[in-house]
Amino acid sequence: MTDDFALRSTPLEAEHGALGAKLGPFAGWNMPIEYAGALAEHQAVRERVGLFDLTHLGKVEVAGPGALALLQGVVTNEVAAIEVGEAQYNLVLNEGGGVIEDLIVYRLEPGRYFVVPNASNTNRVLQILADAETPEQVHLMYHQDWCFLAVQGPRSPAIVEALFPEAVGLTFMRCAESDFRRRPVIVTRSGYTGEIGYELFTYEDIAVELWRTLVHALEPMGGAPCGLGARDILRLEMGYPLYGQDLFESSTAFEAGLSWAVRLDKGPFRGRDALIRQREDGLPSRLRGLRMHERRHIPRAHYPVFIDDRVVGEVTSGSFSPLLQTGIALAYLWPDDVATVGDEVIVDVRGRRGLATVVRPPFVDRSPR
User: Fold this and answer.
1) Are 358 and 312 in contact (CB under 8 A)?
2) Backbone torsions φ then ψ of 351, nearest 5 degrees
């Protein structure tokens, strides 16, 4: 493998190896895929608490008098509505309304925001922000020397609040600044699992000490370190779309079912005109949830979806739900009204016809609030 294709390493790679993690490539990084197994780790998060290393995700600070105007013109949601200490889900679109990226915007101070894009798109998002015009000064900082840990599950408050008093009383999609060993830490009440949880951002020089402290705190609670395999099952059970798998530039924010994260009335932003046209013309496709009828039929990405003998869609994400004990999937169906919630469709599972019902995610009765 040449240097051009070398995987980046998290500062915790040796810690993961010592815990028996299976490491593998993900978005250009060598990341823990699983430790004790994805199903056991899924159960730990749903019932107790799990710890994730998510250092591969981007960590970008946008600060200065022009920060708000810059973000307003780049992302889809109403950034002006974010109060200090709050967070907001957002999309970055191309001029055709297609999804380039989904990300969280945190507001730390009146003129200081923290943006967390996906690993594979961090440089592209940075370039889009750098190229955007704003009449006032903006400072962009890519925190490549930061780590990102997530503590997720019903017992996560006991762990995080004991380490970070600022976390006490944080409600969903709120954030606060704290410290660990005299180093700054951004603590957020957010996550990608559907459970109560926290995300922690800090410098990599204290990553090992913080990781070990959290692992030690997990043990008496029956918690576990968790890999990306469990995280994918957890997010799919909640119906959370994954960029590059369920979100693409060829499908718009409306087709992805993310109109709730778009504010057309806030003023100009990338892709706004295309979304207005699509709202008037109708959607060519729509991302839907599918729940399989039989346990043996497990849907996977790219499996075709039928009504009778007519292809009406394609699975983008699919897996077996440990909570539901059946297969679940996200799939684009076309056109958008070809099937609605409650209708039945057929998924071709490697030549077998698997009956599924169109449902509205989340698939499971969970809430991160």
Assistant:
1) no
2) 90, -5
Q: Which two tokens stand for residue 58?
A: 């981007």
Can you tell me the distance from the alpha carbon of 191 to that of 105, in angstroms, rounded to the nearest whole number?
13
Greatest Cα pair distance in the chain: 64
Sheet holding 29-34, edge to edge: 8-9, 29-34, 22-26
Place of tokens 């295309």: 274
What does the CA dihedral 129, 317, 309, 357 come to, rounded to 10 degrees?
-110
Which residues does residue 289 pair with via DSSP β-bridges, in sequence order?
Answer: 330, 359
Q: Which residue has the tokens 């493998």?
A: 1
Strands 22-26 and 29-34: antiparallel
Per-residue b or e along 16-43, where b marks 16 or more CB atoms closer than 10 Å to that residue's CB: beeeebebeebbebbbbbbbbebeebbb
Nearest to 323 by CA among 197, 223, 238: 238
Burial classification of residue 342, based on how many CB atoms lie within 10 Å of its CB (0-12 exposed, 13-18 middle, 19 or more buried): exposed
Summarised one tens digit per residue, pLDDT across range 111-167 is: 999 999 999 999 999 999 999 988 899 999 999 999 999 999 999 999 999 999 999
Taking only the tens place, the pLDDT of each residue in 35-79 is 999 999 999 999 999 999 999 999 999 999 999 999 999 999 999
Helix (H) or strand (E) run with residue 318 in it: strand 310-321
Query: What does the pLDDT look like over 222-246, one tens digit per residue?
Result: 999 999 999 999 999 999 999 999 9
Token pair belonging to 211: 């990781």
